[in-house]
Amino acid sequence: MATRFVLLIILLFSPGIVFGQATTTWPALPATDGPVEIPAQEWPLRPGPRTVRVLVHFPGGKLANVNRDTGIMLTLHNWGGVDCIGTANPRELANRLNVIALCVNYLQSGPKDSIEGPEPYDFGYLQALDALRALWFVRNDLKLHKRPFAEGRIFATGGSGGGNVTLMANKLAPRTFACVVDLCGMAKLSDAIAFKLPGSALDARYSRDPKSPNFLSLDYQELRYVGNPDHLAVMHRLGSTAKIIVVHGVDDTTCPFAHAQEMAGWMKLAKLDVEPHWIAKKDLDGEVFTSSGHALGDRTKIVFQVAGKYLELGGLARKAPSDFDVRDDVRFPTANGAFVISYANGYPIGRFEFAPLIAEYVDHTDLFQMRDVVGKLQPIRSIADWQVRRQHVIENMQRVMGPLPSPLRRVPVDVKVVDEVKVGTLIRRKITFQSDPDDRVPAYVFLPPHDGKKKLPAVLCLHQTTAVGIDEPAGIRGNGDLKYALDLAERGFITIVPEYPSFGTHKFDFKAKTAYASGSMKAIWDNIRAIDVLEAMAEVDANHIGAIGHSLGGHNAMFTAAFEPRIRCIVSSCGFTTFRKDDMPSWTGPVYMPRIKAQFDNDARKVPFDFQEVVASFAPRSFLACAAEKDNDFDVTGVRDVMKTATAIYKWHDAERNLEAFYPPGPHAFPAEARRRAYAFLERHLGR
C-alpha cells in the first residue's frame, strides 16, 4: 500500500496527468492565413491555463477557398523548433494538396523550453494532444459554419521531434488519420536518452529519483514509445487504417536508425499499414534526398515524393468516423494502470487511471466468484464476469513471479544462426535470439519439408530439469522418451526449443541484479520471445501455435500460455499438482519462484494463485494434462482436482471437448502411450 501511495504522488505531479478540465473558449478561424491561439490541456509542471499558437494556411491563402474536397493536414516542427521549422512547407502543402495546413507550437516549442528548460522534454504526449486539438478546432469551426470539407482527408507530417509528435497523434487518435508521414522521427525514450547516459546524443532531462517532479515512471515511458507492441495492438483492435510512412536515414545517429527499424517492425507485426523508406547513400539525388543522416534533405519535396499519391485528391481518405466523432475513450494499458484519451468533449483530454488494487481470493477452487471494483465478492454470471476473475488470476501470478516485463524490453529478436544440419528429411538449426536488451537465448528450430504452398503449425517445446537442456527435446542427448521437438517435426510441425535460463548453455546468473523477480518469469518472457521468432518465420502459421513440455517444461508451458494468448493448444506432462498437495519449498529456488518463501512463507494457503485457476485461464483453448499415476513429484490426485474444477469453466465456454487428461501407470515420465496421445492432441487441435 505504501508503494502505491508513493506512485500516486509521483503520477499526480507527472506531466500530462489531469483530473479535471476548465471550461474552454475557442476562437474562430481567420479569414486569411494567420495565427490563432487555442486552449490546451494544463501542464502540471507549470500549473495554470495554457494556450497553443496555431498557424493556419488555407489553399490560396483564404478560408473562402475551402471546398468539399479540402482536407486538413498537420505539419509539425522539430525538437527545439517553432512554427514550421524542420518540416514540410505548409503553403506548398495547402496549395498542392488542397488542405488546410497547420503548424502547431505544441508544448515546449522553442529552445528555451524544449532544450534549455528545467523540465523534462514531453516526448510526444501533451504535444500530440495539442496538435490533435488544433485539428479538432479547425474541423469544428468548419462544421459550425456549415462549410463543406473532406472529413476523411486528415493527414500529418513532421520532422525529427515533429515526426515523433506525428506518430503519437496517430496513436492517440487511431481512427482519425488517413495518412501520416514521419521524417527522421525521434528515438525511443530509452533510459540512455531519458537520463543522458554515456553515448546518448540526446538529453530528455528526466530523473531516476521517485521524489523528483522530473521522475520518469514506467507508465510514462511506456506511453511515449510509439512502437509499444501492446499499444499498437490497441490501435489495431480499434480499427486504425492510417497509412504510416516512415522515412529515416540509415546513417542517422541523432535519432538512431535502429530505433526506427524496431518501431516499424512492431507496427508491421501489429498489422498496421506501415511503409518504411530507409534512405542510404545510394538513394541521394542531391535535390530531394541530400543526406542519409538525420537531415535527410528537402523535407517538403520528400513528403511529395514518398506520399504524394496518398495525399493528393483521389488518394487516401478515411471512410469510418474519426475519434472526434466517435467520442469514446481510447485506453493504453501501462505497468500500473492506463492512460486514457477521452473524446467525450470532441477534442481530446488525456488522463492516467490507476489499475484497481489486486483482488485476493482465499478459495482457489471456487471459480464462480469474482471481486467487483470495490473488492466485494460477487457471483460470476457470464463469460465477461469470468474474464474479470481471469485477469485477477494473471495479476496474482505476477505477485508471485514478478511482473511480466514492460513492452520496452521487447527488443528485436535478431535471430542468429549458429549451426544448421540435416536430420533425415528435417533441417535442425541452432540459433540464438535477443530476448531482452541484456540477454540472448540459445534455441533449436526444426523445419520439416515444406512446399511453400501452405504455412505449417508450430510448437514451442520446453525441456525438463536437465543439465543437457535443449539437447534433450532435440533428440541429441538425454532421455530418448523426451525428444518431442524432433518427433513433432517429423510429424510436420515446425518446432522451437528455447533453453531455460541457467540451464545448458544459457548462462544466466540469478545472483546478479536482473530485471526479473523469478526464473519462472524470465522463462515466460523468453518463451514469449520464442513465439515472436516463430511468428516472424514465413513458413509458420501464426494462428496455429502450441506448447508442450515435461516436468519443468510442463509447468513452464502452462505459465507461458497463461500470459501468451497466441499459444492455442497446451500439453503438460507431469508438470503440476495443486500447491496444497505439493512440496512448497521445492518451488522457491532462484530458477523458480523465490517469493513463495520470501513473501508467502512456503504456505500454500497464502500463495495467491493455484493451478485450478491457471488451467481455467486457458479456456476455451485446448489443454491436455498427462499425469503419471505414481508420480512422486506431482501428486496425481491434485491433478484430478485441478481438472475437475477447470472443467466447469470450460463448460461455460462450450469447450469441454478441448480439455483432456490422461493418467498413464508408472512413475514421473512421459511414456510412449502418453506421447502418442499428446501428439495426436496437438495434431487434432492445430492441424498438420
Question: What is the strand and helix layout of this fold?
Answer:
Layout: H1 2-12, E1 34-40, E2 50-57, E3 71-76, H2 90-97, E4 99-104, H3 111-114, H4 125-144, E5 154-159, H5 161-172, E6 179-183, H6 191-194, H7 218-223, H8 229-237, E7 243-249, H9 257-269, E8 273-279, H10 299-311, H11 323-326, E9 329-334, E10 337-345, E11 347-354, E12 369-371, E13 377-379, H12 383-401, E14 416-423, E15 426-436, E16 439-447, E17 456-462, H13 484-490, E18 494-498, H14 519-535, E19 540-550, H15 552-563, E20 567-573, H16 595-598, H17 611-618, E21 622-626, H18 636-652, E22 659-662, H19 672-686
Parallel strand pairs: 3-4, 3-5, 5-6, 6-7, 7-8, 17-18, 17-19, 19-20, 20-21, 21-22
Antiparallel strand pairs: 1-2, 2-4, 9-10, 10-11, 12-13, 14-15, 15-16, 16-18
Describe the structure.
30% of the residues lie in helices and 22% in strands. It is an alpha/beta fold. The protein folds into two domains: 2-330, 3-Layer(aba) Sandwich (Rossmann fold), CATH 3.40.50.1820; 407-686, Alpha/Beta hydrolase fold, catalytic domain (Rossmann fold), CATH 3.40.50.1820. The strands form four sheets. The chain has a nine-stranded mixed beta sheet, sandwiched between helices. It has an eight-stranded mixed beta sheet with strand order 1-2-4-3-5-6-7-8, with helices on both faces. The chain has a three-stranded antiparallel beta sheet with strand order 9-10-11. The longest helix is centred in the N-terminal third of the chain and has 20 residues, at 125-144. The two termini are 50 Å apart. Mean pLDDT is 94; it is low at 1-23.
